[in-house]
Amino acid sequence: VLELTRRILDGEVRATARVCRMVDDRVEGHREILKELYPGTGSAWVLGITGNPGAGKSTLTDRLIQRFRLGGTRVGVVAVDPTSPFTGGAILGDRIRMQQHFEDPEVFIRSVATRGALGGLSRSAADIARVLDAWGAGVVIVETVGVGQDELEVTRAAHTTLVVMAPGMGDDVQAIKAGILECADVFAVNKADREGVQATVRDLELMIALGSNLLGGASTAGKRGHSAAAVRVPKPTGAQGEPVEGPWTPPIVECIATRDHGTGELRERLEAHRAWLGGTDAGRARRIERQKEQMVASLRDTLVQEAAAELGQAIDEAARRVEAREIDPYSAADELIAQFRAR
Ligand SMILES: Nc1nc2c(ncn2[C@@H]2O[C@H](COP(=O)(O)OP(=O)(O)OP(=O)(O)O)[C@@H](O)[C@H]2O)c(=O)[nH]1
Ligand SMILES: [Mg+2]
């Protein structure tokens, strides 16, 4: 194990690929490796990219990789595809529009498929991001498909989350779950060469304004007036300068990924969020909050798995009894928990 760890920390691609596979397959002993690698992690910026299928996430990812590479940054990419649990990377490789980077030894692209287990996807993605961090990536981009619960979980492992939208794809604001606002740090409205961009931007602005009122997260919420429709989200400032204290308001960047338009500004906004995370009290509090969420999620997965393994048949039996109305579901759950605790 030590040998593999050393090779990854030395930046060896083959060892990194092997450990990524071990982590994704959850093979015996992978946690030991992760523990060993951990001290060598912490320098990568983990950038989550999510949004509806076809919005342009991969094209944008490709553009961002290009910009990071121009700056000499080593880049890791974790492509998460919950929709194809059986194909693994095969089909995915086709779908990722990053072919030009496959030849670059400073870019490591790895796909993750669901392994069925509850929370397995987000855990694997987070762990693989750590491996790539240890390998020496300055940025790890985690791209997910869709905006469902799984994807939101995945973004919790990211420092900065980019939500990609495109006009006229039915992913207008009404269709977006409330959860997205909680996880979005920057919005990209891609395909700005298409009809309806302004409408999508306006909808988003409204949602952000309403959301900061509803969530009560932004201390400035009260100052924004009563009529949400009249509220304009201020154009973000400080992209180059010092991070501004106080809550973060997600900026909206219009872009055309295929023509590389707006992607420079997009990168600046993302970097501004990174600066906010590291340079403000609110940002640091946010990081701790994220750590806690991950901790709770991991605890929940472990407990559920252990309980299911331990109780096994007892769960089936309880379900049968509840269905036959021999016992109420609350008492049945109490009994199961008592049995688990007593083991
Ligand atoms: N017109 C236009 N088309 C774009 C733009 N960006 C991406 N596309 C096209 O939209 C299609 C989907 O782009 P992808 O980058 O694969 O989108 P994705 O969000 O990664 O898709 P999934 O991974 O399948 O969820 C491709 O045919 C792109 O060429 C854009 O700015 N304008
Ligand atoms: Mg894609």
Summarize the structure in words.
This protein has 343 residues and is α/β, with parallel strands linked by helices. Helix content is 49%, strand content 12%. The chain has 13 helices and seven strands. Strands 3-2-4-1-5-6-7 form a seven-stranded parallel beta sheet, sandwiched between helices. Helix 1 crosses helix 2, helix 2 runs antiparallel to helix 6 and helix 12 packs antiparallel against helix 13. It is globular. About 10% of the residues have low confidence. Bound molecules: guanosine-5'-triphosphate and magnesium ion. Guanosine-5'-triphosphate binds next to helix 4.
Which runs of at least 5 residues are low in confidence (pLDDT < 50)?
A: 84-96, 216-236
Helix content: 40-55%
Alpha-beta classification: alpha/beta
Question: Strand arrangement, largest sheet?
Answer: 3-2-4-1-5-6-7
How far apart are the termini? 33 Å
Are any ligands bound, and if so which?
A: guanosine-5'-triphosphate, magnesium ion
- Largest beta sheet, briefly? 7 strands, parallel
Q: What is the radius of gyration computed over CA atoms, rounded to a whole number of angstroms?
A: 22 Å
Total beta-strand segments: 7
Number of helices: 13
Order of helices and strands: HHHEHEHEHEHEHEHEHHHH
The rough form would be described as globular
**How large is the share of residues in beta strands?**
5-15%
Please state the average pLDDT score. Answer: 82
